[in-house]
Every structure is written in C-alpha cells, then in structure tokens.
Specification:
mainly alpha; 189 residues; globular; 6 helices
C-alpha cells in the first residue's frame, strides 16, 4: 500500500472522530483551550492508532467474528453517546455548569473514541491480510486522527456559540446517525 493510499485511508478513518470532536466542542462549557483540544485529539488519536493494531493482532483467526458484530458495537456506542447529547441539550444542560465530574467527561470521551474507532480495528484485520506494515500504518492513522479531532474540538465551540443548543442536538443526532449509517452499511450495503 502506497504512502498516499495510507494517508487517504487515515483521513477517511478520522472523519468520524472529527465529527465527534466537533460535538464535544459544542457542549464544552467554555471555549476549549488548545491544551483541551489536544487532549481530546490525543484520546481519539491513541484510540484510533490502537484499534488497527488490535485488529492486526486478531488477524484472520477472529476476522469473521469481529466483522459480524463490529457494526453493532459501533451502533450501540454512537447511538448511546448521541442520545445522551440530545437528552442533555433538551433538558437544558447548557444553562448550568458541567454537572459531570471530570472523570465522567473523560469516560464519555473514551467511549466516543472507541465507538468511532471500531472501523479501524476491522481495517487492521484487512491490513494484516494485505501484508501492510502496521508499524507505519498505525502511527499515520493515529496522527491524522489526533489532528482532525483537535481541529474539530476547537471548531465545535465556535459552531455552538452561533447555533446554541441546536448545535448540541445536531451533534448528538449526527453521532446517532453515524452509528445508524455504520449499521446500515454493514447490514444492507
């Protein structure tokens, strides 16, 4: 696989992390600092980098099983996180200081990152079958996702300030639709 093809693959895998980070930026109680955006990017990037390695290690032994349920895992995680965002916006969560403890916020970030990286695990299985060097592929995927998620986090607050709680609802619906799209693509596509 050429470096250009690998970079395009990494960009494609990072799009959902970008969308999720935009949603996270929308609900941030204040404009995210570059450090906060980089922390978000780091969680998404490390998760997205680790997922193809896990897929690579699972290899062909479990590929049929993982491919059989990956879309359901992503669907449930993204639908849950998206539903939580919509519920929070509808109940007026924006008007109060963030009620969640920092660990809850980090846990939600990690669950979202896992939900958006399920496809990377399956890609890792494919990369193993294509004999692609995972030591090169995984860091490219992780760095691309880190960059995209960091940018998404910073852009999210600006979007949220212009659109208000509708942006949080849209971000939540977007994550839920992303989960539905993954499920549809694997079951109907």
């Amino acid at each position: 696989m050429s470096l250009l093809a690998l970079m395009m693959l990494a960009l494609g895998l990072s799009i959902d992390a970008f969308a999720a980070a935009v949603g996270r930026g929308v609900v941030a109680p204040e404009r995210p600092s570059p450090a906060m955006a980089m922390r978000t990017g780091l969680v998404f990037g490390l998760t997205e980098m680790s997922a193809p390695v896990v897929g690579w290690l699972l290899g062909t032994a479990f590929s049929g099983f993982v491919e059989a349920i990956d879309h359901w895992i992503a669907f449930v995680l993204l639908l849950g996180v998206g539903g939580h965002m919509v519920w929070n916006a509808l109940r007026g969560g924006d008007d109060e200081p963030e009620a969640e403890a920092p660990q809850g916020s980090l846990l939600l970030l990690m669950v979202t990152a896992v939900g958006t990286s399920i496809d990377s695990m399956v890609v890792g299985i494919s990369l193993a079958l294509l004999d692609v060097d995972i030591r090169i592929a995984a860091p490219i995927i992780g760095l691309t996702t880190f960059t995209m998620a960091s940018i998404g986090m910073l852009a999210g607050k600006a979007i949220g300030e212009k659109v208000g709680s509708r942006a949080e609802i849209a971000a939540g619906v977007g994550l839920a639709l992303l989960g539905c799209g993954i499920l549809y693509g694997h079951t109907m596509g």
